[in-house]
Amino acid sequence: MHLIEKLRRFKDDQNELELFGQITTRKKSWFKFVKYENNVYIHAYVGGNKVKIFDTWEEAEKKLKMWINMLFGH
After folding, report:
1. Domain boundaries, the chain
2. Rounded distance, CA 18 to CA 1, Å?
3. What's the domain of life for this entry (predicted)?
């Protein structure tokens, strides 16, 4: 499942406060999402590149998309 889709599902899941997992099997990678009131904290790592985001859900998703595009060129 795509990382953005995981973020969207995490947002909608009222039972989860944290989500952690792997981004890709091709490189060392992981992500962590944490809900905080109406915001989300995102910490992600892929092959030496990492990002930390704390923002509203909408802004965090935009920033995460930009980071993914920078890494994978999608």
Report:
1. 3-72
2. 17
3. Bacteria
For helices 57-72 and 3-12, give the axis angle rounded to 10 degrees: 160
pLDDT above 80 for 1: no
Asked if residue 5 has pLDDT above 90, the reply is yes
> Nearest to residue 3, comparing CAs of 19, 18, 23?
23
Opening angle at CA 50, ends 8 and 61, nearest 5:
25
Task: Read off the pLDDT of residues 19-69 as tens digits, 9 standing for 90 and up.
Answer: 999 998 889 999 999 999 999 999 999 999 999 999 999 999 999 999 999
What are 45's two structure tokens? 């790592």
The radius of gyration of the chain from alpha carbons, rounded to an integer in Å, stands at 12
Matching residue, tokens 């947002």: 11
